[in-house]
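Observation: inputs received (chain + coenzyme A).
Thought: call the complex predictor directly.
Action: predict_structure
Action Input:
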Amino acid sequence: MLHRPAHWLYNHKLYFLARLLSQISRFFTNVEIHPGAKIGWGLFIDHGSGVVIGETTTIGNDCTIYQGVTLGGTGKETGKRHPTLCDNVIIGCGAKVLGPFKVGSNSKIASGAVVLEEVPENSTAVGVPAKIVRINGKKIYNSNKNLDHIHIPNPIQNQIQELSDRINELESKLNNKDFSK
Ligand SMILES: CC(C)(COP(=O)(O)OP(=O)(O)OC[C@H]1O[C@@H](n2cnc3c(N)ncnc32)[C@H](O)[C@@H]1OP(=O)(O)O)[C@@H](O)C(=O)NCCC(=O)NCCS
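Observation:
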């Protein structure tokens, strides 16, 4: 509610008043929304605490943001530095979405993810840095099996096994005096 008048003041170049209002809002809610951020209808900020929304962020309609989310910049961009969330996007608690790219409509960002690249619509991004694991409900990446520290291949043991198999094969051919193959 306080962001709407703060954004109006910002658009009318009343930057100090805009900032003052947003800081008052932050004092009461622990949610920091830069007055320059463009926010659509139906944004639901659940729990709120620790949410930071940067100046050039754009948020579509009916999005949900949980506690501890940052919609920020990487510090490397100038001009448009913050993300654009399309409609009906969910950002899980503690996730960081950093950079001037789009998160497509109906997409979900998992809690704790760090998103550094565009997310297509109807998809789910998880992890650090975030990877797309689902598009339109279909699995496209196995987040658990990507790095298996237990079943690591042993190339030397594999070669010794191959040599041993070959020796056994040759010995059995010699014993049977079968040189036809
Ligand atoms: C990502 C999320 C939205 C679920 O989306 P979904 O499209 O239904 O995805 P799934 O649950 O099918 O998970 C897809 C894969 O991502 C993994 N995954 C889900 N959430 C994850 C997370 N936060 N971090 C890492 N991996 C995660 C799943 O284990 C699954 O892995 P697999 O493919 O290897 O089995 C949900 O897990 C989430 O993080 N919600 C945020 C809720 C929140 O912030 N709650 C706070 C309440 S106070």
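Thought: report the result.
Final Answer: The first strand starts at residue 31 and ends at 33. The chain is about 25% helix and 25% strand.
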